[in-house]
Write a structure and sequence with these properties.
Length: about 190
């Protein structure tokens, strides 16, 4: 069966409440992707408040797509800790959401995924409380730069369940809306 590399990027620091994690899935056969993920996180250094660090590991679990079970481990070189440096005010638990789009269909619905970038420094918001125009445009460009860099190997994983075996759907685009998103939980 096909495997996916599960990448759990951990968030830590004063602006993070509870265990913070952002999970990505990458096709097992694809290698050399870790620098591209580090570049993605480096973009956010001036957007996420100072005191927060996002750590990308050099190893993690391989997940069997069909069963969802751990089938081994992966190792890549280039692990990093990206320290965020945006000065100024921010609201805990509030930021933006990247909506990952795929061509995958499961149980009659389009497969989509989300990544929450929370918190964001206050300068990313307009006076009406939405995302500032240049910010959400740049955030979407950053998401799509990651999609392009990973060349169809970034996927949204649908776990096995009543709809059948698990499914991996390649991400074709990322979109950030001009709205604010918030977290109820950091589990993604």
């Amino acid at each position: 069966m096909a495997n996916l590399q599960r990448v759990r990027c951990n968030w830590s620091g004063s602006g993070v409440v509870g265990p913070g994690v952002t999970t990505f899935y990458v096709q097992e056969a694809y290698s050399g992707w870790l620098p591209d993920l580090n570049t993605f996180w480096s973009y956010w250094t001036n957007r996420i408040p100072a005191g927060i660090t996002v750590s990308t590991p050099s190893t993690g679990d391989l997940i069997d797509v069909a069963t969802g079970e751990i089938s081994g481990s992966w190792t890549e070189s280039g692990a990093s800790n990206v320290a965020m440096v945006a000065a100024g005010a921010y609201a805990k638990g509030v930021g933006c959401r990247i909506a990952w789009q795929t061509d995958g269909v499961r149980a009659g619905r389009r497969v989509r995924g989300s990544t929450f970038i929370v918190p964001l420094q206050a300068g990313n918001y307009s006076v009406d409380g939405t995302l500032e125009d240049a910010a959400y445009t740049a955030f979407t460009a950053t998401a799509n730069a990651l999609v392009a860099a990973l060349e169809g190997n970034l996927v949204i994983y649908s776990r096995p369940g009543t709809a059948g075996a698990g499914q991996a759907s390649p991400v074709i685009a990322g979109q950030v809306k001009d709205t604010v998103s918030w977290l109820r939980s950091r589990r993604t």
